[in-house]
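ingest -> validate -> predict -> emit
validate: passed (alphabet ok, no gaps, 167 aa)
predict: started
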Amino acid sequence: MQKANIDGKVWRFGKDIDTDLIIAARYLNTSVPEELAKHVMEDADPEFVKKMSRGDVIVAGENFGCGSSREHAPIALKAAGVAAVIAPTFARIFYRNAFNMGLPIFELQESDEIAEGDKISVDMNNGTVTNQTTGKIYKFIPIPAFMQELIDAGGLMNYAQNEIKGK
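emit:
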């Protein structure tokens, strides 16, 4: 495991954030990550991309990533600079697509206790989220080792290329 911590500012979204809110279907005429990044979360918060900074974290309610199975959603989030997404639950296909694209996501039941604007630190190895604003520490089940390898490699394709090259 390479990267052990993610530190960032929190951006809050509610429950049932579907893939159409993450990246609207009208932008799916491209798969270019930089183009998708310009429109991430646009229908949920039109100013999101302008307000956020690379390394920030989305904290949402349950069922994040529901809806269609498009891989564009985690690609757009990652390309925009979102360092991670934290929610109590994720749609299963989004969960897998996020890891395949190298976007860390964490299931945290108490995510509703973290406010927009809070500064947090995620310790991926130990399974903790520390709210640096409030001082509260939350525990989650750490990502399984193989999934962490996908994140460390930057996604499934990079992982596979590294395996082929013998790295």
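Residues 54 and 81 are 4 Å apart (CA to CA).
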